[in-house]
Amino acid sequence: MSKQRILIQLDSDKHASVFDGVVAVDSGVDHLFQYSQVSVDDVEGLVHGAMFTRGPQDLHQTAVFVGGSDVATGEALAEAATNCFFGPMRVSVMMDSNGANTTAAAAVLAAAREMNLNGVEALVLAGTGPVGLRAGRLLATQGARVKLGSRSLERAQQAAAAIQSQVDGSEVQGVATATGEETLLAAKDAEVIIAAGAAGIQLISKSVWEQCEQLKVLIDLNAVPPLGIEGVDVMDKAKADGQQILYGAIGVGGTKMKIHKAAIASLFESNEQVLDAEEIYSIGESLES
Amino acid sequence: MSKQRILIQLDSDKHASVFDGVVAVDSGVDHLFQYSQVSVDDVEGLVHGAMFTRGPQDLHQTAVFVGGSDVATGEALAEAATNCFFGPMRVSVMMDSNGANTTAAAAVLAAAREMNLNGVEALVLAGTGPVGLRAGRLLATQGARVKLGSRSLERAQQAAAAIQSQVDGSEVQGVATATGEETLLAAKDAEVIIAAGAAGIQLISKSVWEQCEQLKVLIDLNAVPPLGIEGVDVMDKAKADGQQILYGAIGVGGTKMKIHKAAIASLFESNEQVLDAEEIYSIGESLES
Amino acid sequence: MSKQRILIQLDSDKHASVFDGVVAVDSGVDHLFQYSQVSVDDVEGLVHGAMFTRGPQDLHQTAVFVGGSDVATGEALAEAATNCFFGPMRVSVMMDSNGANTTAAAAVLAAAREMNLNGVEALVLAGTGPVGLRAGRLLATQGARVKLGSRSLERAQQAAAAIQSQVDGSEVQGVATATGEETLLAAKDAEVIIAAGAAGIQLISKSVWEQCEQLKVLIDLNAVPPLGIEGVDVMDKAKADGQQILYGAIGVGGTKMKIHKAAIASLFESNEQVLDAEEIYSIGESLES
Predict the structure, then answer these.
(1) Which of B69, B267, C237, C273 sits 20 to 30 Å CA-CA off C176?
(2) Dihedral sign (CA B55, B57, B62, B63)
(3) Predicted ipTM > 0.90
(4) In this complex, do C19 and A48 lie within 8 Å of one another by their Cβ atoms?
């Protein structure tokens, strides 16, 4: 009898995410073990329990999902999990706290549908947050010249430097986008804008982005009005608007959900996978073809 | 592949109820997500996770069960859950904290088996507690003239007024039942007595109820001796005792369990159900035929 | 439709053990309810929920597993669970906090493979800890003359007296093993040595045990170097080394895992089982034949 698929959901919040649980079930997980309020100190005991129960030939049927609303904590939990592994004694791990990886992957994939991103100039608004940083990194990996926008120039430059150190040969620049003038300057030559800001905060007005002559794709990831990009509707999905193509948060959400499910399913293909932004983006790419 | 049935158990206690969990499994739930120590502030995040994962055509395969020992908290959690819904974005919800709804429904159904409740006088002892209140409301809905008994006349009258405002055209009266004399006065013309008090507290003696000439059905919901109605045995199930029919807590329990299971199963028939006392009573009625 | 198998995992730790959960799934449990941070006061409500949901004919399909890293707490939880039962209203219970019962059973079974334990002299190092105490008790039950070693003679003697009062006609002696000289004295005539100490602490050096002329079997249950018995490797499984047979922690682990799974599966054969050290050892014996 082949082993049943067990997903161990390590979540840093008071209650492990229902959303992540339902997606896990819909991805073919047989048994979901939900753990809440998981801190870094708890990880070793939990992950050892995953590593030391089934034989090496069955370890691919156990996997770990790291979630919760705090992305920095999720990164620390995922790192603590992978630090437990040695040799063949490991299980696959996916990190998607606050949906940051699947959301960033879906956004960049939406842009990649409309153009080859190699050499393209792309602006990520709220580019220093967890989703924005990942979107910027994925764009850079695809060869785009990336501007990360933030109200604070200093934080934008730090984030840009971080991505440049992670992605060989990438061109990433931090830019201030605190005012309309700054934002126009940042967006002027962009062909792609992704807005990855908090709920209910507008990051760029239509009167600003209408002045950007190269602009082809606008993607907004905020589902709560006012949206991040004025003029985008939350339901927009590759909506043609003059010479621009618009995506809203729910329009991107379908792709995000497909990527999330495919990523969970892929955890059980081997025991060696560590799914962070780049790996999850690759899974998304394979779904597009 | 049709979606698997997921029940999200929101429980206000330290540990989500085993009882409710086992009943869920026996009602055909494929995956049970148990959440403990749920407070009103936690509900939105959890319920959004249920609403925003599956498409509208599959939302009936996800449902919410609200439980825990505190009925007032359960009512608040259920209300918070239904407040999250808009348009077709909703999942079915059942509230049965402390078993109050299924117990009250089973008790009133037991009485309804023996007589048409329309126009009948019924006394609910401990009528201001969560089970008693619901039994009183269900009796009123069936057209019975209801007396709610309590040691405090004031609380009895408040509870009666609450039911009257909820059930159009109902006749509900609060009565004091602190002493044997008061209880005799309250029970004198009753055809049905339901005792819904706390474990181990006698609410009416046999010498009192034997003086009630109209009395046909006595139902006691307390399983821990001394029982609420002297002379009833916890196992009694439609037991004939002179001209009276007796039900004890375990005698009612079989019906309660059938109602609970049928109610859980019915959650998955559509995504629009909100199962509180009246809806659960209707499910019980459909099982009787 | 036959009822699905539900295992209720009562765990005293912050998070219920992943290890125990995976083994439960691999033992054929259909639904696992994991409860964390369970204290003695919580047990009655949880166990009543297991007892009072399914009819007597189906109670064998619900069972309780007690785990967690603290064995004394686990013993108290298991006792609280069995105290809830009356007459036929019961479910099967297995206690294996920190793996103490399955580990001790696997160790003694390893020794029993090599010789008839009746009349044999056996030394248990770290014999006053939870695994050591259980190993000593199982050895005594098999008719071995047991020495329990501890750095404190007084604790060793107390533990020995406890086993003697539990196992009729047993010969159990507490011995000091704080120094090499004391350990040599304790081990001199032993045919079996089991080291049940904490991770990373050596309990006997090779130069000491090589002086023990009767010694046939050495079993070390510590997986973290330095191991408890110098000269044993963690992977040793009935490894011949001169005239001795060696077992290390992982060498014993395969048997431990088989016993654990068989014990979980056996919980569902009737509703009357209480699986503590002796019962779990018997299950292990049945797997050897």
Answers:
(1) C237
(2) positive
(3) yes
(4) yes
